[in-house]
Amino acid sequence: MKNKTDFFIGLALLAFCCVMGYEIHLIPEPAALDFFSAGSFPTGVTIALALLSLILVGRTITGKDKDTACWPERKLAVKVGLMAAWILAYVVGFIFLGEYAYDAEWPEGTGFLISTLIFLSGAQVLTGYRNPFYIFLISAGISAFLYAVFAIFFKVPLP
Are the beta carbons of 68 and 3 closer than 8 angstroms? Predict the structure, then answer.
């Protein structure tokens, strides 16, 4: 096994799929016998990710993967770590800002829009974008699109 990076990432993804499978199992069953339910999409994504992870681990074990990639160099590892911390901050901020917006009786979805706008702006800065106009334009456009899809089209209550 030459490519230890792919092996360990594949195992980490498989562990993530196990956690996701457990979380999807906790979703309540629908009252009607519909073919598609609230857990259908996440189940499909989790199964696809698990299969691709198994392929990645299998190719590494059998030696069919000729690449001998190594762990990311320090500069890239720092960026990956910062992005992971930024995603965690987004999730925490999303929850707390959503609760604050609910308590303050702001319009529905205000917490989602504000936290997503801040997250996308910071993520673009972390990945190297520097033009403030384009950062704001892209962040506002994606936030508005996500709000329209989930709140208006799918009628999902947002914080």
Answer: yes
